[in-house]
Amino acid sequence: MACSVADSSFLFLVPKRRPIHSTRIAQIASSGTYCLKWEGLPQISSKQKGCLIYSRKKNVVQAVAVPIAPSPLDSAEDRKLLGEKYGFRQIGEPLPDKVTMRDITETLPKKVFEIDDGKALKSVLISVTSYTLGLFMIAKAPWYLLPLAWAWTGTAVTGFFVIGHDCAHKSFSKNKLLEDIIGTLAFLPLIYPYEPWRFKHDQHHAKTNMLHEDTAWQPVWKEEFDSVLALRKAIVFGYGPFRPWMSIAHWWLCHFNLKKFRPNEINRVKISLGCVFAFMAIGWPLIIWKTGIIGWVKFWLMPWLGYHFWMSTFTMVHHTAPHIPFKNSDEWNAAQAQLNGTVHCDYPSWIEVLCHDINVHIPHHISPRIPSYNLRAAHQSLQQNWGKYLNEASWNWRLMKTILTICHVYDKEQNYVSFDEVAPEEAQPITFLKKVMPDYA
Fold first, then answer.
1. By three-state DSSP, how is residue 16 classified?
2. Per the UniProt record, which residue ranges are transmembrane (predicted)?
3. Residue 422 and residue 414: Cα distance in Å, rounded?
């Protein structure tokens, strides 16, 4: 909104009543230019109570009322259209600023926070059994059925990650030492150091979708993209066609460098790294000794790549969409980020079972202390009390296409700008995805 004043000393004589500010003008009118002349103002006698303000001469004030476009999320019809466009079943309406995390948490039933060691053991049995079955399938399947065996086994080993994930949040067992042991063991087949991941993941929960601070799927910064000409094509591939495996880069860059951790975390980080390196030093040679290099690829590498496909896909769907903003710390609101900025996504039932409902994700961000086996009950409660604010989807090609072809470079107004808008000459991978990816929801 802009206002130009012909003479800097021009002021009004106004009565003591509610003033009409320029912001009010913008609210009153959707657009246009307004000229307020001295002759058009109410004439006030000197006896009238008010504020006497000097003016040298009559002047013209020109107030330009800039239209304030309503957010597309404010209208139910617009949200429905955006949902259809992006592949969402529902796009939630904006959560009011006054709502706090405590307000939301207090609506959850107490039973969803209860730890049940029997249910925890059941989740371990599901993962161990399904993973063992997967290895058996790999051993017996003809070559043309190996992709199916790898898909099953990669999904099953993702269940190990979810168990370790619950242990890191102290929501798996009542025995906290047992949690750390199980969490460390569950991460070993993935070559994931448990404690380094736990420290970084805690930061993700504390600062979900906060610019610079969240540790998961930050948007690309245009300044950085423009400054690294030699790596621009790699970034385009990484946030485009290779994005379902970009968790590999996150795994390598964020969890093995001691300089990335605080001094009080170093000892626990070293213990986890020692466990991972011991598994590699003992487990990998044993696999190669028994099955050869090809066996190592068949039995370990391919399921590991399958795990990273789910790791990348789950995490980007959880918090990435054109209508979900990343915000600076001074604008960030915890309740909005966790409830409005997290996505519930339904997958085929066999994936949900093997991955222990990790994609019932909104209640997990309301409170990480909710065990995975209670997430569905917690989500039902959120639907009853906060349903109109939730972002919900069933996995579909349009949803994936939206993320892979739109959600690239940070933009304060639009949230994201695609690479083909920022650097069309280098965005061929994105153009290719737009052409070949299915568009049905």
1. coil
2. 144-164, 269-287, 293-310
3. 13
Q: Report how far residue 36's alpha carbon sits from residue 39's, in angstroms, rounded to the nearest whole number.
A: 9
Residues forming a β-bridge with 345: 393
Mean pLDDT by 10 residues, the chain (441 residues): 38 39 39 41 42 43 48 83 96 96 97 96 97 98 97 98 97 93 97 96 95 92 88 94 95 94 96 97 97 97 98 96 96 96 97 98 97 98 97 97 97 94 94 95 80
Strand partners, 34: 63
Token pair recorded at residue 161 = 């990650």
Mention every residue, 6+ apart, whose C-beta is less than 8 A from residue 169: 368, 369
CA 388 – CA 92 distance, rounded (Å) = 6
CA distance 162 to 172: 10
Beta strands in 284-408 (DSSP E): 343-346, 391-394
**C-beta atoms surrounding 222 within 10 Å:** 15
Q: Which distant-in-sequence residues (6+ apart) come within 8 Å of 35 by Cβ?
A: 60, 61, 62
Alpha-carbon distance values, 342 to 264, 336, 337 (Å): 31, 9, 7
| CB burial readout 60-73, b (16+ within 10 A) else e | ebebebeeeeeeee
Across the strands, what pairs with 180? none
Tell me the one-letter amino acid at 9.
S
| Residue that is written with structure tokens 């379902």 in the block | 244
Q: What are phi and psi of 396, to 5 degrees?
A: -155, 165
